[in-house]
């Protein structure tokens, strides 16, 4: 692929937001170049069944992303396997630096690099990822009716997950590393007043165990005494936050205090002609369908921008 071409639009990231942007920009004959990044397909590649995607009663996460990729490719999106190592939004056309393919010029950019969930780093976590270890109660909670659930964390997300899971099970245990919750008072109260939700303070999960196909237990360690014990569980929800993948955009775009890309209306960033969509801008909803919708928005915003610029 020639690096001398000035592209109409380069999409960075290949999760639901990036692929939706690819579908819409390619159907608008903008000939998008989509750089897939280190984890093509995004977080859904590590999930099992997805049952809240409109039009699919149940679809495996990887298959959904394969379908979306093929959809974008069918309409003309060009895919590049590689990693963006730097950007220059200070002059036009914009420059996108890649690790293996050199630098590319473009009139517009759609950023959909997503976010990476914080992990424990304990034994068993990787082995049972997607097999009972998950970061999304809203996505996966319905798979565990009347099952034992362990939620790790003490902030608002952990409280939301516990309250959400109470629709499905009355056997919920929160494991929190500190001796008190960090969630907002209202969120805490909802959980503390629920007799079905147990909280174990000052403990961390130090190992996740299973039967080879699914989680069955977690080992927890008392942070004060070092005492170790096990809890039987069918699912482990990690609610310890996530980090937006915005490192390469620092100094190029305005980021908020948590590192997410700040939007200025729709999907517009602080630089005209650069748009952002998906989890890289969103720490509230964090759903694939929301990301896909924002990818559509970014594509439409890009199309209008290019038309205004006479490109």
Question: Overview of this structure, please?
Answer:
The chain has helices at 16-27, 61-75, 137-140, 156-165, 185-192, 288-308; strands at 6-7, 10-12, 33-35, 49-50, 59-60, 78-80, 84-88, 94-98, 102-106, 109-111, 115-117, 133-134, 148-152, 171-175, 197-200, 203-210, 215-222, 228-232, 235-238, 242-244, 274-276. The chain contains 6 helices and 21 strands. It is of the alpha/beta class and 311 residues long. It has 2 domains: 6-117 and 242-308, FAD/NAD(P)-binding domain (3-Layer(bba) Sandwich), CATH 3.50.50; 133-238, FAD/NAD(P)-binding domain. The longest helix is centred in the C-terminal third of the chain and has 21 residues, at 288-308. Helix 1 (16-27) packs parallel to helix 2, helix 1 packs parallel to helix 6 and helix 4 (156-165) packs parallel to helix 5. The strands form 6 sheets. A 5-stranded parallel β-sheet has the order 6-3-2-10-21, covered by helices on one side. Strands 12-19-13-14-15 form a 5-stranded parallel β-sheet, with helices on one face.
Give a quick rundown of the structure.
The chain is of the alpha/beta class and 311 residues long. The chain has helices at residues 16-27, 61-75, 137-140, 156-165, 185-192, 288-308, and strands at 6-7, 10-12, 33-35, 49-50, 59-60, 78-80, 84-88, 94-98, 102-106, 109-111, 115-117, 133-134, 148-152, 171-175, 197-200, 203-210, 215-222, 228-232, 235-238, 242-244, 274-276.
